[in-house]
Amino acid sequence: QVQLVESGGGLVQPGGSLRLSCAASGFSMDYYAIGWFRQAPGKEREGVSCITSSDGRTYYADSVKGRFTISRDNAKNTAYLQINSLKPEDTAVYYCAAGGGYSGSYYYTWDRIRKYDYWGQGTQVTVSS
User: Fold this and answer.
1) CB count, 10 Å around CB of 13?
2) Buried (b) or exposed (e) across 81-91, using 16+ Cβ within 10 A?
3) Which of 49, 44, 43 is nearest to 99 (CA)?
4) Is 120:22 a contact under the CB 8 Å cutoff?
5) N or C: which end of the chain has fewer CB within 10 A?
6) Maximal C-alpha separation, the chain
7) What phi and psi, each to the nearest 5 degrees, are found at residue 5?
8) pLDDT tens string 64-118
9) In whole angstroms, what is the distance from residue 121 CA to residue 97 CA?
10) How many CA atoms, within 13 angstroms, populate the side-chain half-sphere of residue 87?
11) Residue 10 to residues 69, 71, 91, 108, 127: CA-CA distances in angstroms?
């Protein structure tokens, strides 16, 4: 059974940090790009970051560049999102997703929901003092 499970969310003060994990089971993450998305109340789900499979290229939304870092450990079948300098506007449910296909195809489409085949259930990140 294909499954993605996020963890690491929580309540953190502005300026704080969290490390989100995305553990895959039922398939090998090696051949998939991993994307992180988030959805705040009343807003659409938006792409935050992506790391491709073969070349490990990374992409970030402008709103998180310099604060978020995506990585992956294929041996552990796990991806991560290190989030620093958190702001209240980062409050959202964070989802990881796995997408197949040629790594180069993610250059312009990494943040499109339809690009991804498998999704986790999400982990809540709340930034508040």
Assistant:
1) 10
2) bebeebeeebb
3) 49
4) yes
5) N
6) 42
7) -125, 120
8) 999 999 999 999 999 999 999 999 999 999 999 999 888 888 888 999 999 999 9
9) 10
10) 7
11) 18, 20, 10, 31, 8
How would you classify the pairing of strands 10-12 and 123-127? parallel
| pLDDT tens per residue across span 14-71 | 999 999 999 999 999 999 999 999 999 999 999 999 999 988 899 999 999 999 999 9
From 48, 110, 108, 102, select the one nearest 80 (Cα to Cα): 48
Q: What SS3 class is residue 96?
A: strand
Quote the CA–CA distance of 68 and 63 in Å, as a whole number. 9
What are the tokens at 94? 């964070």
- The label of the residue with tokens 């250059």 reads 107
Per the CB < 8 A criterion, the answer to whether 8 and 19 are in contact is: yes
Query: In the block, which residue shows the tokens 């989100």?
Result: 20
Whose CA is closest to 105, among 52, 61, 62, 65? 52
